[in-house]
Amino acid sequence: MSRIESTIKNITARGEKALIAYVMAGDPTLSETAQIVLEMEKAGADLIELGVPFSDPVADGPTIQKASERALRQGVTLRGVLDLVTLLRRQTKIPLILMTYSNPIYAFGLAAFFKEAKGAGVDGLIVPDLPREEAKEFLSLAKRHLIDLIFLVAPTTPAERAERIVKDSGGFVYYVSLTGITGAALTEKESIRARILKLKSMTDRPVAVGFGISTPEEAKEMGQAADGIIVGSALVKIIETAQNDPAYLSRLSGLVSSLKAAIRS
């Protein structure tokens, strides 16, 4: 069992739910991202999703798109993000998941990327524009290097395809609670819960829900069915204020703490 899966299962065994916190690597800077990750862990985050900046982030909403643009202006690359992971691994054992589009990986070189990601200490990988049907080489390399390749299931995913995705997803299954982009308003909560329970009936792996969760109340509601909650845009919005608000880290820690408290029981 991987570090990602065992971390989530150990948390759910205590009657809690896992908090997966997303941050864009390099926003506002790579060195501050390292500090942000450590602060979020201290505040209660159980796993960290590190976004890799990309010029055409089709699955992301305006908040994360702007964070990506800020990081790109800093000159942040996939190489720089891997170096950040290496740095973080000297200070923490928290599971680290890269969320990147396929283009930067192909530009880096597929085999080279997986080898270096493993060497840096990456635990998992989410590639939102990689369909499961086109992921054969990714799956092979991920298995060889013991990196969890985590797939997304959407509300519009047909049941038969969802079963195939769930079978191949490593670490956990990422349920996208909205059909649109990240950070939108959460609606139709009953149908979301029903779909999460259906996915859980297909697999022993944990199911985490993300896209659109921004408050402790929403986290608590979705946590009733899911094993983990993924929060991104709400955290990135606070980081966006870093230049003008010296206390942004304190506000960020406060939100992480309140999100974790909401799904603790």
How are the SSEs placed, and which strands pair?
Blueprint: H1 3-13, E1 18-24, H2 30-43, E2 47-51, H3 62-73, H4 78-89, E3 96-99, H5 102-108, H6 110-120, E4 124-126, H7 136-144, E5 148-150, E6 152-153, H8 159-168, E7 173-176, H9 189-202, E8 207-210, H10 216-223, E9 228-231, H11 233-239, H12 248-262
Helix pairs in contact: 2-4, 2-12, 4-6, 10-12
Structure description:
With about 260 residues, the protein is α/β, with parallel strands linked by helices. The protein has a single domain (about 5-255), classed as Aldolase class I (TIM Barrel, Alpha-Beta Barrel), CATH 3.20.20.70. Helix content is about 50%, strand content about 15%. It has twelve helices and nine strands. It has helices at about 5-15, 30-45, 60-75, 80-90, 100-110, 110-120, 135-145, 160-170, 190-200, 215-225, 235-240, 250-260, and strands at about 20-25, 45-50, 95-100, 125, 150, 150-155, 175, 205-210, 230. Strands 5-4-3-2-1-9-8-7-6 form a nine-stranded parallel beta sheet. Helix 2 (about 30-45) packs parallel to helix 12 and helix 4 (about 80-90) packs parallel to helix 6 (about 110-120). The two termini are about 25 Å apart. The alpha subunit is responsible for the aldol cleavage of indoleglycerol phosphate to indole and glyceraldehyde 3-phosphate. Pathway: Amino-acid biosynthesis; L-tryptophan biosynthesis; L-tryptophan from chorismate: step 5/5. One of its GO terms (cellular component) is cytosol. GO terms for molecular function: tryptophan synthase activity.
